[in-house]
Write a structure and sequence with these properties.
The structure holds two protein chains of two kinds.
Chain A (H helix, E strand, L loop, with lengths): L15 H4 L1 H12 L7 H5 L2 H12 L4 H11 L3 H10 L11 E6 L2 H5 L2 H12 L12 E6 L11 E3 L2 E3 L7 H7 L2
Parallel strand pairs in A: 1-2
Antiparallel strand pairs in A: 1-3, 3-4
Chain B lengths: L1 E5 L2 E5 L5 H7 L10 E3 L4 E3 L8 E4 L6 E2 L9 E4 L3 H16 L15 H8 L23 E3 L9 H9 L6 E3 L6 E3 L16 H5 L5 E3 L3 H8 L5 E6 L20 H11 L3 E4 H22 L5 E2 L4 H10 L13 H17 L6 E7 L3 H6 L14 E4 H10 L21 H4 L6 H15 L17 E8 L2 E9 L1 H13 L6 E5 L18 H17 L9 H11 L5 H7 L10
Helix pairs in contact in B: 8-10, 8-14
The chains are: A alpha+beta, B alpha/beta.
Chain lengths: 177, 578
C-alpha cells in the first residue's frame, strides 16, 4: 500500500457494520467461535483469519470493519491496519463486482501482459488498484496464477482467460454483465 | 557466567547478555541506531533491524547484529574487521539514501543519532542516490510533529507507544520502500487516541518525531507592546535544563533558570510549584472527603494531561474517578488570569501566560476548550525544557554562568511538596503530608514517604495517616497504569488513592526533557536532585505556603469553595477508543 493521506477514513462513505446487521452477526459469530481471551498476544494469532472472514463477508475492509475486528480481538486499530496494509490480499477500499486481474508474472509479462494491462486501464478509465465509479470493475495485477502455458493470462473473478491479446480486452469487458 | 573474547580481550558476562553488552563491559562501544534501552524501566528495543551494529563472530558465516545476538561460551568476536566496517558503512549509506540531507535546518540538529553516526563513521559522501520518500508532514496537532520522510524505520516509537505506554496508535504500515510507522489509515495524530505523552519523541533517534515548536511565538509575545508576559516553570524543568548547558545531570538549576528567564524579558518569573501547592490544597480536600464518606474510591490524580487523555479514550467508563482538580499548569493559568490580573488591574486578555514544561501533552492540555473561559486561554503558550534551552542559546544566555535569582511573588513561592511533583510518587507524597496534618490537627515531622519514591513502574504501600490505614498505589508509564486500572475494574485490587503519571518515572522523564539517549543514570540523578531540592527547602508542606494561605484568605476563601471550584476544578469527557 502506498503512502499518502489520500486513503483512510475520509473516504469511507458507509459504516458497513451498522448498515448490514446480518453480516455483522455473521462475522461476530465467527470471531466468537475462536478461542478469544484477554491475552492480546494470543488474540493476535486470530487476526488474519478474522480479516479473511470479514473480507469474505463484506467484500472489503473499511475502517468500520477494522474497528469491529480490533474491538472483538481486543487489539488496537493500528495493529489491524498494519496487517491489512502489509498483505496485498486485503483491501480497505470497495472493490467492483468484477475483479479483473492481469497476471504480470514472468511468463505473462514476457508475452505482453504490460500492454494488456494498459488496454484495460484505457477502456475502464481507472488505474491499477482502482475501482470504477459504478463499482462494477476493479483492476489489479497479480503474480502468476500457475497457468503459464496459457500466457498471457487474465482473471475475472474466478474465471481464467488464456492467450489474451489487447484486441480481446473489449470482449472480456463486455462479457461482464 | 559466560566467557568469551572480544577483539582478543577476554570477558565474562551473565547468561543472556548480548555481544553489545559484553563489549561495553570492556570499553568497546559498538555503534547502534535502532537499538534502545532504558534499564531503569526495563525497556528493551532490540529489533536488530538497522544492522549498524554488525560484528564478526568466528565460525559464523554471516555477520551478527551485536544488539540482539546472545553471547555463547568461548565465542570469539571481532568488532572492527574490515568486513564489519564495510557492512556498517553500506548500511548507513543505504539509510541515508532515503533520508533528507537537511541537517542544518532540522529540529534535531546536534541531537540526532543518525547525524552522530555519520560523523563517527567518517562518512563524507553518500554513495547511493535514488527514490526519496515524499510524505506530507503531520503538523495538525499542537504537541507533536511527524515528518515521515526522516523516519529510518527503527520502530523505537512503536515500542514506546505500544509496549511501554500501551496507547497503541502506531504500527508498521505498508511494505518494502513504502513501509512506514504510522497510525491506522495514516490518520494525523490529532484524529487518533494519541495522548501526546511524547515518549515516541523521546525515543526517536532522528527528526521524524519532534515537538510542535512554540519558540517563535514566545519571542513574539515577549516583544508585544502593552502585554504583561509572565512565565511559569514546572518542577522537573529545574533538574534537567542544566544538562543542555554542560552542567552535570542532576544539577539543580532553579536560581539560574529564574535569572535566565528574567534576561529573556519576562515581566514576572513565577513557578508552577506555587500552583502545585494549590493543587494539593484542592486535591487533598477531595481525598479526605471521599475517604471519610468512603465513596468513589480510589481517587486518581489528575495532574498529568497525557494520563487524563489516556483514561478518556481507553477507560471512558472510569472518567468519574480522577480528582476534579485541574493540573498545576492550568491552576496557575486560572489564578494568573483572575486573582493576579485583578491585583494588577489588568484584563485577562492583556496577560500572556507562558509555561515551561518537561512535557508535550501540556501543549495539548493548554488548548483544551474547558481551559479557555470566555475564549481567553488560561495558559497561552507552552514550551518544553528543550525549547527553553534553545531560546537561552539563541539569546546568548550562558545558563551555567548565571548568578542565582529568586522567583517573583505572589505566584512564585513554593514548598518541597510541590517540587516532588516532578518525580513519580511526588504528588501522592505531597497530598499525604497535608492529609496527615489536617486529619490529626498536628504538625507531623516525619514526612518522608519513602515507599512511594523511586523509578519502579508500580509502587504499592499502606500508609498510616492519622490512625487510618490508607492503601495507595503509584504508577508511572501508561502500560503500568493500565495494569492497575484493569485490576480495579475486575475487583482484584482496592486502593484509596492512586497517583498516575504517563511517562515512566514521572515528569523528570517527560517527552519535553533533554534527550536521555537511553542513559538511565541521567534519570536517576534527576530524581535524586528533586528529593534533594525538597529536603533543602524550609517549608515542605503545601498548606504551609504563606502565599497559598493568603490566596485563600484574600480570594478563594477555602479549599473546595464555590470560587475554587469555578477556577480550579474541571471535568473529563469519554472519547473514542481508536
Amino acid at each position: 500500500m502506498s503512502c499518502c493521506d489520500c486513503q483512510g477514513k475520509g473516504q469511507e462513505e458507509l459504516n458497513l457494520i451498522e448498515q448490514f446487521p446480518e453480516k455483522r452477526e455473521q462475522l461476530e459469530a465467527y470471531i466468537e467461535s475462536l478461542d478469544i481471551s484477554d491475552d492480546r498476544e494470543k488474540n493476535r494469532g486470530f487476526l488474519i483469519q478474522s480479516l479473511h472472514k470479514a473480507q469474505d463477508i463484506f467484500g472489503y475492509l473499511p475502517l468500520s470493519v477494522q474497528l469491529f475486528v480490533a474491538d472483538k480481538l481486543k487489539l488496537h486499530l493500528s495493529e489491524v491496519y498494519g496487517v491489512i496494509s502489509f498483505y496485498s490480499y486485503f483491501t480497505d477500499k470497495p472493490v467492483g463486482k468484477y475483479k479483473i486481474n492481469v497476471c504480470t508474472g514472468t511468463a505473462c509479462f514476457v508475452k505482453g501482459a504490460g500492454a494488456i494491462l494498459e488496454e484495460f486501464k484505457r477502456y475502464l478509465n481507472i488505474e491499477c488498484g482502482e475501482t470504477s465509479r459504478d463499482r462494477k470493475f476493479s483492476l489489479g495485477a497479480l503474480r502468476c496464477v500457475g497457468a503459464c502455458s496459457l500466457a498471457p493470462v487474465v482473471m475475472v473473478n474466478e474465471k481464467v482467460y488464456g492467450k489474451v491479446s489487447t484486441k480481446m480486452v473489449p470482449d472480456i469487458i463486455s462479457e461482464c454483465k | 557466567m559466560i566467557n568469551l573474547t572480544i577483539n582478543d580481550t577476554p570477558v565474562s558476562v551473565e547468561e543472556n547478555a548480548t555481544i553489545l553488552q559484553a563489549a561495553a563491559k570492556i570499553g568497546i562501544r559498538i555503534p547502534t541506531l535502532c537499538h534502545f534501552e532504558l534499564d531503569c524501566f526495563s525497556i528493551e528495543h532490540r529489533t536488530g533491524s538497522c544492522r549498524i551494529c554488525v560484528v564478526e563472530v568466528e565460525g559464523r558465516r554471516n555477520l551478527a547484529p551485536a544488539c540482539c545476538t546472545p553471547v555463547n561460551e568461548d565465542m570469539v568476536v571481532k568488532t572492527n574487521t574490515i568486513r564489519a566496517i564495510n557492512a556498517r558503512r553500506t548500511m548507513l549509506d543505504l539509510i541515508l539514501s532515503d533520508h533528507p540531507k537537511e541537517c542544518l535546518t532540522c529540529e534535531k540538529n546536534g541531537d540526532c543519532e543518525l547525524q552522530n553516526l555519520a560523523s563517527e563513521m567518517d562518512l563524507h559522501h553518500v554513495m547511493y542516490e535514488g527514490e526519496m520518500s515524499t510524505y506530507k508532514i503531520d503538523l495538525a496537532c499542537n504537541a507533536i510533529v511527524r515528518d515521515l520522510n526522516k523516519c529510518i524505520m527503527c520502530r523505537r516509537c512503536e515500542t514506546a507507544c505500544n509496549d511501554v505506554q500501551t496507547v497503541g496508535i502506531l504500527s508498521g504500515v505498508g511494505r518494502g520502500f513504502d513501509a512506514v510507522v504510522a497510525p491506522a489509515a495514516m490518520m494525523p495524530l490529532n484524529e487518533t487516541k494519541c495522548v501526546f505523552c511524547g515518549q515516541c519523541v523521546a525515543a526517536c533517534p532522528v527528526g521524524a518525531l519532534t515537538e510542535q515548536n512554540n519558540k517563535y511565538q514566545v519571542w513574539q509575545a515577549l516583544n508585544q507592546k502593552g502585554k504583561h508576559v509572565i512565565v511559569q516553570t514546572a518542577p522537573a524543568v529545574r533538574v534537567a535544563i542544566g544538562e543542555e548547558f554542560g552542567m552535570d545531570p542532576g544539577s539543580i538549576a532553579t536560581g539560574k533558570l529564574v535569572a535566565g528567564l528574567r534576561m529573556l524579558g519576562f515581566d514576572k518569573v513565577f513557578d508552577t510549584d506555587f500552583a502545585a501547592d494549590l493543587t494539593i490544597m484542592e486535591e487533598t480536600t477531595e481525598l479526605i472527603e471521599r475517604l471519610t464518606k468512603n465513596e468513589n474510591l480510589p481517587i486518581l490524580t489528575s495532574c498529568c494531561p497525557g494520563w487524563v487523555k489516556f483514561l478518556e479514550h481507553q477507560f471512558p467508563e472510569l472518567v468519574y474517578m480522577p480528582s476534579t482538580a485541574k493540573s498545576p499548569q492550568q491552576m496557575f493559568g486560572a489564578i494568573a488570569k483572575s486573582y493576579y490580573a485583578e491585583k494588577l488591574g489588568k484584563k485577562p486578555e492583556d496577560i500572556i501566560c507562558v509555561s515551561v514544561m518537561p512535557c508535550l501533552a501540556k501543549k495539548y492540555e493548554a488548548s483544551r476548550e474547558e481551559f479557555a473561559p470566555e475564549g481567553v486561554k488560561d495558559v497561552d503558550l507552552v514550551i518544553s525544557t528543550r525549547e527553553l534551552a534553545d531560546m537561552f542559546k539563541e539569546a546568548g544566555i550562558q545558563l551555567e554562568k548565571l548568578e542565582d535569582k529568586e522567583y517573583d511573588n505572589p505566584l512564585g513561592e513554593s514548598t518541597g511538596a510541590a517540587i516532588i511533583f516532578g518525580a513519580s510518587g511526588g504528588v501522592l507524597e505531597a497530598a499525604l503530608r497535608t492529609a496527615a496534618d489536617w486529619l490529626t490537627g498536628e504538625d507531623i515531622k516525619d514526612i518522608d514517604f519513602n515507599a512511594v519514591r523511586g523509578l519502579e513502574g508500580i509502587k504499592e504501600a499502606t500508609v498510616n495517616v492519622a490512625g487510618t490505614d490508607v492503601k495507595v498505589a503509584v504508577t508511572s508509564g501508561l502500560g503500568n497504569a493500565r495494569k492497575v486500572l484493569e485490576k480495579i475494574q475486575k475487583g482484584e485490587a482496592h486502593y484509596h488513592a492512586i497517583e498516575i503519571m504517563a511517562c515512566p518515572g514521572g515528569c523528570l522523564n517527560g517527552g519535553g526533557q533533554p534527550y536521555n539517549h537511553g542513559d538511565s543514570d541521567i534519570l536517576e540523578k534527576r530524581k535524586e536532585a528533586i528529593y534533594t531540592a525538597d529536603s533543602d527547602l524550609p517549608i515542605r508542606k503545601s498548606h504551609e505556603n504563606p502565599h497559598i494561605k493568603k490566596l485563600y484568605d484574600d480570594y478563594l476563601e477555602k479549599p473546595g469553595s464555590k470560587l475554587a471550584h469555578k477556577l480550579l476544578h474541571t471535568h473529563y469527557t469519554p472519547r473514542k477508543n481508536w
